[in-house]
Task: inverse folding
């Protein structure tokens, strides 16, 4: 893991990093992380990147109010990472379907399944590298939060990765592969549905929640569309993480 | 409004009262209420009463942590109030249906509709009397919280009563009359569904939430049955009331 740039403002240190092909960013308290502070992995939405505005705002909030460290990486072909020819075909097909007023669901499904297959081992390598940093270490509790593509990736990641012990999943197109995998999800988890989202249907979101294996699960439903929900880590979700991952009583800022 | 008895423990003063035929209880800070402190009306479940254990625990929490005043009254024929012959027939029918393994829904529907018709003006008279107390006054923000029967009554009450400005509704058998009335509900409101409750179906709960007219509405879904949800005012619901009704920064205890 190579740190390539850093800035800081309002008490938050923001460090860009690379890990092989992966590009990422780490948010931490400017004055230094407290040993054992929880680590939150943040998965951006489809078409967005590691510095999506809602993601950054949520990360800053969690760092300053709870003393957490937050890591985000670009999904394959997103943000600072070059897009390969196959991914470009999917993106072109998405634009064409939207322009034609046709459903994007089949394309999103195939594209997200492919992205998740590639992103899960990337997140796992990122966790390895983060745990090797002295300021994080192997003892920090790890949570995951994401929306849309960040759920498609995060759901498979949290099933594969026992080091993650709590997750918050925002609105997502709940295709069948996610519903089929959901019974294997057994960590404490919160879901959100945007009730009036035409692109992401309600019913499959309910079906996904129903299929989740966790006994400690909750679903929060709000009116509106999923774009309104970008601050998924704020407020009640931050409290959820605090309950399951703990907090640093006195953030070091 | 006549106060008939009072006790206090752990910083909470608990005063029994009567108002005509109505029997009720008022929970307030032992050291005295702060002027303008929010007033929370608490509606008990079907078959329960104004001192149901979950209701009392929630009331004590809100009084001590937020400085609120909490009022609860017995529904007609519940708690300290005599049950009339017609209500007794409904209760007998409920017991018979349960013993026979038959659906109680049609009986609960008729019984709750009748109870709500009678309880709404009782709650309105109670609000009048509470606002006439110098320690509450006309300026205190008013919220309502309830489960099952407390929702059946509270939903009609909050539609009829503009003095109530925020409501939290726990699990309820969402019969058609409630769904038909829901578009008239326009205050900030939170609902809860117990996802695995065979007696209270999921689908009609979702339909009820969908029909609610409020733009500021949320639905929280948890696994399990509705009996687990008695502490509906705790945690996130207490925060909801704090957002909409305010809080007393320094509870006077």
Result:
């Amino acid at each position: 893991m190579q740190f390539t740039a850093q800035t800081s403002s309002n008490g938050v240190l923001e460090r860009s990093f690379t890990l092989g092909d992966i590009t990422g960013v780490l948010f931490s308290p400017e004055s230094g992380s407290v040993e054992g502070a929880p680590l939150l992995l943040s998965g951006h939405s489809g078409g967005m990147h590691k510095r999506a505005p809602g993601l950054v705002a949520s990360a800053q909030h969690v760092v300053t109010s709870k003393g957490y460290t937050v890591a985000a990486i670009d999904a394959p072909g997103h943000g600072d990472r070059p897009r390969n020819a196959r991914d470009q075909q999917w993106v072109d097909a998405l634009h064409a379907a939207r322009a034609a007023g046709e459903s994007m669901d089949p394309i999103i499904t195939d594209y997200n399944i492919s992205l998740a297959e590639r992103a899960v081992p990337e997140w796992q390598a990122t966790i390895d590298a983060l745990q090797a940093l002295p300021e994080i270490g192997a003892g920090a509790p790890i949570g995951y939060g994401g929306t849309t593509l960040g759920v498609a990736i995060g759901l498979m990641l949290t099933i594969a990765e026992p080091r993650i012990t709590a997750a918050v999943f925002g609105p997502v197109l709940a295709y069948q592969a996610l519903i089929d995998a959901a019974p294997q999800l057994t960590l404490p988890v919160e879901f959100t549905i945007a009730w009036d989202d035409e692109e992401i249907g309600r019913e499959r979101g309910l079906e996904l929640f129903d299929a989740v294996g966790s006994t400690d699960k909750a679903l929060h439903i709000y009116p509106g569309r999923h774009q309104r929900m970008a601050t998924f880590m704020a407020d009640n979700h931050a409290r959820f993480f605090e309950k399951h991952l703990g907090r640093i009583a006195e953030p070091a800022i």
